TrEMBL record:
It comes from the Bacteria. The keyword Zinc applies. Gene3D superfamilies: Ribonuclease Z/Hydroxyacylglutathione hydrolase-like. Keywords: Hydrolase, Metal-binding, Zinc. This is N-acyl homoserine lactonase. The keyword Metal-binding applies. One of its GO terms (molecular function) is metal ion binding. Belongs to the metallo-beta-lactamase superfamily. Its EC number is 3.1.1.81. Its cofactor is Zn(2+). It comes from Actinomadura rubteroloni. InterPro entries: MBL_superfamily_lactonases (IPR051013), RibonucZ/Hydroxyglut_hydro (IPR036866).
Length: 365
């Protein structure tokens, strides 16, 4: 799984140093203090860089997810599951070489994601009939691109906030033909994967606590000449950055966007703005939990890796994003898997959903 040398960046990208010292702090309490100091500086600096060219989101799949993971210990509900909606984001930006680029964020192959041990066990437990009732299938990645008039060969980069559930063989191609796919060729022949180095390297030696949400066997025959490992925060172009937010996984990252509606963060660290502002939530238990615990965020804790760092990363996102939403005052966090209303889980329905994020036009001028 050899990839680029440490420190190498694609031409047209720029490294970001604002959080370098913060990211190097091992003690979680001191790191959190440092985040509170540096995040406003990052926000001001990032806003001054300009805006992305265009952003559009695409619905992929809505699926049940354990409440105790999505809302950790905070929600009071007998309902064991919530429903989350996974969405892809198409981002156009100009890099610092002046080249117009297209980035796909979270282009998950939803059908192959079902082979993840956790979701496979869930399907076996409830059977195909319950699965059909609970899961809402949207168009595939390729179907969305066709609708938008984007040739897969136009895609320059793909990225995921982390590699949970991902089978990347269709995206990157493989060194040998895959019997279950029928090909070794990639859907995106000119695209490179942008991934934090710790996230990529962990796939070679997963801990037992991690394995339930990964598909490491699918990485065996992957091409790696189109993988770019990031060793820190990166500005891809005006209004588009990827920053390290470890905790949900060891190499978790967050997309930061500056748009005509302000600054947004995007990740699965929290499943809804109410996860970042539980004191405002109408979901039973969240506001009271925030008051009694003194905790200001509710982590999406489906893997028990680095909870304190996960908390810190959510505070980082919370301090970077602007405020908006219904009535104003809500953090502009677009969850890559957003908590959505579900008639089978009425007590854990969110106060609102963003549902979509659009900025500019994807049509080339």
């Amino acid at each position: 799984m050899t990839v680029n040398e440490r420190g190498d960046l694609p031409s047209g990208f720029r490294g970001i140093e604002v959080f370098d010292e913060v990211n190097a702090i091992a003690e979680p309490g001191r790191q959190l203090q440092a985040i509170r100091s540096r995040a406003p500086e990052f926000q001001s600096w990032f806003r001054a860089q300009g805006t992305a060219v265009a952003v559009e989101t695409c619905d992929l799949v809505a699926t049940p997810f354990p409440r105790e993971y999505a809302l950790w210990r905070a929600a009071l509900s007998p309902t064991p599951f919530v429903r989350i909606y996974n969405r892809m984001m198409v981002v156009r930006f100009d890099d610092f070489d002046g080249v117009r680029r297209t980035l796909l964020v979270e282009p998950t192959d939803s059908r192959l994601a079902e082979n993840t041990p956790f979701f496979r066990a869930l399907a076996d437990r409830f059977g195909p009939r319950m699965r059909d009732l609970a899961v809402v299938w949207g168009p595939t990645v390729a179907e969305h691109l066709a609708r938008l008039g984007i040739d897969p060969a136009e895609i320059d980069y793909i990225t995921f906030d982390h590699l949970h559930v991902q089978d990347l063989r269709p995206h990157l191609g493989t060194t040998t033909p895959q019997p279950d796919l029928g090909t070794a060729e990639p859907l995106f022949p000119n695209a490179k994967l942008l991934v934090m180095r710790p996230e990529w390297e962990q796939m070679q030696r997963l801990h037992p606590l991690q394995r339930n949400f990964f598909q490491p066997e699918t990485y065996r025959d992957l091409r790696t000449d189109n993988v770019v490992c990031l060793d820190g925060d990166v500005l891809l172009g005006p209004g588009v950055a990827i920053i390290a937010t470890p905790g949900h996984t060891i190499g978790n990252q967050t997309l930061v966007l500056n748009t005509d509606s302000g600054i947004w963060t995007q990740s699965e660290n929290g499943v809804h703005p109410e996860s970042y502002q539980p004191e405002r939530s109408r979901i039973p238990g969240l506001a009271r939990w925030a008051r009694s615990s003194g905790q200001e965020v509710v982590i999406n804790a489906n893997t028990p890796e680095l909870a304190a760092l996960h908390y810190n990363s959510m505070v980082k996102e919370k301090l970077i994003a602007d405020r908006g939403g219904p009535g104003g005052g809500w953090m502009q966090h677009f969850a890559s898997s957003e908590l959505t209303p579900w008639r089978l889980a009425p007590l854990v329905s969110p106060s609102f959903t963003y549902g979509a994020l659009r900025h500019g036009s994807l049509k080339e001028e």
